[in-house]
Amino acid sequence: MREAIILVGGKGTRLRPLTNHTPKPLLGVAGTSFIRHQVAKLMDAGVDHLVFATSYLAALFQDEFRDFAGLEISYAVEEVPLGTGGAIRNAGKLLRGGPDDPVLILNGDILSGVDLRDVVRRHEARGADVTLHLTRVADPRAFGLVPTAEGGRVRAFLEKPKTAAECVTDQINAGCYVFRRSVLDAIPDDREVSVEQETFPALVAGGGLVYGHTTDDYWRDLGTPLAFVHGSADLITGTATSPLVGPPAEALVHPTATVHASAQVTGGSTVGPYAVIGAGSVVHRSIVGERVTVEPGVGIHESVVDHDSVIGAGSTLRETVVGCHSHIGAHNELPPQLRLACGIRIPAGGVRVTGTATACLTAHRVTGEQ
Ligand code: GDD
Ligand code: MG
């Protein structure tokens, strides 16, 4: 038996409002919930028992996998979030393997091309306590820094460095581990524990056999809106791969969606069920949700428009998240990185970044005039 845990208990705050009612791993990426891509990858690696470490909106994971027959799934539920280490320890109680068996652990928001069988093989060949998959990124500050010695032995674990002096490497924790089961069982279970801030540093300081396996495979943490849209787009264009995604394509348009012949849907965009894309509109590297209406002449770039929203004619969105049931009137030009809550209404011509603002939208009562 090969066992795995996926950590899916986080609140996904950086992806609000998309995560207001849906946990981050259940958001749609390249046409299906993100977690299904991860589960399919684990199945390809021979995993036959998976434990979800759930907390935030826990019941939705059971709903998602109710009729799933591909592998056995158990659910560990934290009434109060236990932190990443506490979550691993808690989920570990549902594992069935022996004390020396390897357990694969994934963060629930990692899109990665790493060969999971290879990570487990290296872990077993070294007789390691823990093996971490590592990757290199241009800006490591949002991650766990993991300097290694010759041969891959981990020298330190520095979660989210605060100062430039702490940025000792561009090699980071890629959110994929193999634990010897007995090491995971030794994490305290009477309080919240961070695997990054407590467990890994303590194991390294205590002389534990902690190894890093660094690869240059595709890797992305989908925790921010921009990373989220790019991860989805990369799966569709074939830059990233998943057992659930077909051959590379420019876009994934649901069969019930309507895209005008003069519209362009490019760069790995997805267009959800019953969505409508109007004449001359451009949707590039974006996710357009279910029943969204994009009127003519709209530009949507690197953005997410959640279900049941309307984007008015001639409007432009860049790196924008539009919450569900919103209505953006015609000829709005939204500033980049805007995140709109669910149900927001912006009148026609209400927002501009460049050029001239629309003439006054309100009918004023002019006083002092005869
Ligand atoms: N069950 C449970 N309980 N899961 C949790 C909890 C909890 O209390 N807290 C966080 N998680 C889950 C999240 O749902 C996510 O799947 C994973 O743990 C990591 O949390 P993030 O919030 O995404 O962390 P991060 O992206 O800031 O940093 C982590 O990932 C980086 C790689 O992407 C760290 O592990 C870094 O060291 C790492 O570099
Ligand atoms: Mg993350």
In short:
It is built from 7 helices and 29 strands. It is of the alpha/beta class and 370 residues long.
- Could you give a short account of the major beta sheet? 7 strands, mixed
Q: Provide the list of bound ligands, each named once.
A: guanosine-5'-diphosphate-alpha-D-mannose, magnesium ion
Full CATH superfamily name of the largest domain: Spore Coat Polysaccharide Biosynthesis Protein SpsA, Chain A
Major sheet strand order: 5-4-1-6-11-8-12
Unreliable stretches covering 5 or more consecutive residues: none
Main CATH class of the largest domain:
Alpha Beta
What structural class do you assign from the helix and strand content?
alpha/beta
CATH topology of the largest domain: Spore Coat Polysaccharide Biosynthesis Protein SpsA, Chain A
Proportion of helical residues? 10-25%
Mean pLDDT: 95
Strand fraction band?
25-35%
Description:
The protein has 370 residues and is an alpha/beta fold. The chain folds into 2 domains: 3-221, Spore Coat Polysaccharide Biosynthesis Protein SpsA, Chain A (Alpha-Beta Complex); 250-346, UDP N-Acetylglucosamine Acyltransferase, domain 1 (3 Solenoid). It has 7 helices and 29 strands. It has helices at residues 34-44, 59-64, 83-92, 116-126, 181-185, 195-205, 225-237, and strands at 3-7, 28-29, 32-33, 49-54, 72-77, 102-107, 110-112, 130-136, 144-145, 158-159, 171-180, 210-214, 219-221, 251-253, 258-259, 264-266, 269-271, 276-277, 282-284, 287-288, 293-294, 299-301, 304-305, 310-311, 316-318, 321-322, 327-328, 339-340, 345-346. Helix 3 (83-92) crosses helix 6 (195-205). The protein is elongated, with a radius of gyration of 23 Å. The protein starts with a strand and ends in a 24-residue tail after the last strand. Bound molecules: guanosine-5'-diphosphate-alpha-D-mannose (GDD) and magnesium ion. Guanosine-5'-diphosphate-alpha-D-mannose binds next to strand 4, helix 3 and strand 11.
